[in-house]
């Protein structure tokens, strides 16, 4: 299996990313690292623990990460994820403490202790921890297999007309991560807006009849209303698990190689991800790629299977 560290800010869709990673034999989740984003890092860390409880996978360690962006102020997404960061469900109290080691050290130590090309880093929140890890131990850049992030978009924004929340929240960190030189796939809004939790998807989950299925439906109920009221969607886009789906089955997420940069300075364009899509830019040796097209039925099959497998 692909050995991964998931750096996240659960968050409704981050929670689904955790479930998908745990429920697929193609992925081995070595640890969850947390970052302030959708809510404060305290709430986010507890949420990560609670999701692992619900999945009965308390053996997966949770490492607490950055409380705030490198330079910017904290800006939580309470309108989309609620006061807790996971509104809509009961969150069981953690039975296992948070790991003593902090997120950035866990990332560095895990990557350096593994074989070169073994560990994949997945980021589904602001990229503060991954940026700090690359600065703390630059050797990880050569050593990881690849980095897959949910963030940005080449034609779409949600926080502003041109910027997506995770990148907008910590654009300097995102610039460090995107410029680092490792193999990087950006799963942006262009892709994740195709991952809609429709009524049919909810019916399939509901038919599983498990506690975890109920938990999933509770999350989606709140998420749907939030997206209807704040973003003009009928069905909520479930962004973050698209990164995991790409690792499980690359055929589910079509990609295109393209040079990628992050705007940190523009008055109107803070946090915009700029992909160079001009003809001829998709050279094989380009280290960055963008996700373009989702096989939505294939994606939801993976998610439903994972929820089933977790029981
Ligand atoms: C991203 O922002 C967060 O609210 C979600 O969890 C996702 O990672 C979508 O813009
Ligand atoms: Ca997230």
Quick overview:
The protein is of the alpha/beta class. 40% of the residues lie in helices and 16% in strands.
Description:
- The protein has 311 residues and is α/β, with parallel strands linked by helices.
- 40% of the residues lie in helices and 16% in strands.
- It has 13 helices and ten strands.
- The chain has helices at residues 12-22, 41-54, 78-81, 103-113, 128-136, 140-143, 165-169, 171-179, 189-192, 199-206, 211-231, 241-248, 296-310, and strands at residues 2-8, 27-34, 62-63, 119-123, 146-150, 184-187, 253-257, 260-262, 273-275, 288-294.
- The strands form two sheets. It has an eight-stranded mixed sheet with strand order 3-2-1-4-5-6-10-7, sandwiched between helices.
- Helix 4 (103-113) crosses helix 5.
- The longest helix is centred in the last third of the chain and has 21 residues, at 211-231.
- The model has no long low-confidence stretch (mean pLDDT 98).
- Bound molecules: beta-D-ribofuranose and calcium ion.
- Calcium ion binds next to helix 1.
Major sheet attributes: 8 strands, mixed
Structural class: alpha/beta
Compute the number of helices.
13
Provide the helix percentage: 25-40%
Characterize the quaternary organization of these chains: single chain
Radius of gyration over C-alpha positions, nearest whole angstrom: 18 Å
Q: Proportion of β residues?
A: 15-25%
Q: What's the order of the H and E elements? A: EHEHEHHEHHEHHEHHHHEEEEH
Number of strands: 10
CA distance, first residue to last residue: 20 Å
Strand neighbour order, sheet with most strands: 3-2-1-4-5-6-10-7
Mass-distribution shape: globular
Q: List bound small molecules.
A: beta-D-ribofuranose, calcium ion
């Amino acid at each position: 299996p692909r050995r991964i560290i998931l750096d996240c800010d659960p968050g409704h869709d981050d929670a689904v990313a955790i479930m998908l990673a745990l429920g697929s034999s193609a992925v081995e989740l070595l640890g969850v690292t947390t970052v302030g984003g959708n809510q404060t890092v305290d709430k986010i860390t507890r949420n990560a623990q609670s999701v692992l409880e619900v999945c009965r996978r308390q053996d997966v360690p949770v490492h607490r990460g950055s409380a705030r962006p490198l330079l910017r102020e904290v800006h939580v997404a309470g309108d989309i994820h609620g006061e807790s960061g996971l509104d809509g469900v009961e969150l069981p109290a953690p039975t296992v403490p948070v790991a003593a080691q902090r997120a950035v050290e866990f990332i560095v130590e895990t990557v350096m202790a593994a074989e070169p090309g073994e560990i994949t880093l997945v980021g589904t929140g602001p990229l503060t921890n991954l940026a700090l890890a690359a600065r703390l131990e630059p050797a990880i850049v050569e050593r990881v297999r690849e980095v897959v992030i949910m963030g940005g978009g080449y034609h779409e924004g949600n926080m502003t007309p041109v910027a997506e929340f995770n990148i907008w929240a910590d654009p300097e960190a995102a610039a460090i991560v995107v410029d680092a030189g490792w193999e990087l796939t950006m799963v942006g809004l262009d892709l994740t807006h195709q991952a809609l939790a429709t009524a049919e998807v909810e019916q399939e989950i509901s038919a599983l009849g498990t506690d975890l299925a109920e938990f999933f439906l509770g999350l989606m109920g709140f998420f749907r209303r939030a997206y209807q009221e704040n973003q003009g969607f009928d069905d909520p886009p479930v962004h973050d698990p698209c990164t995991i789906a790409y690792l499980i089955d690359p055929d589910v997420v079509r990609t295109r190689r393209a040079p990628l940069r992050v705007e940190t300075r523009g008055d109107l364009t803070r946090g915009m991800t700029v992909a160079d899509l001009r003809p001829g830019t998709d050279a094989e040796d380009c280290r960055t790629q963008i996700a373009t097209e989702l096989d939505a039925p294939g994606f939801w099959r993976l998610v439903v299977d994972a929820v089933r497998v977790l029981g």
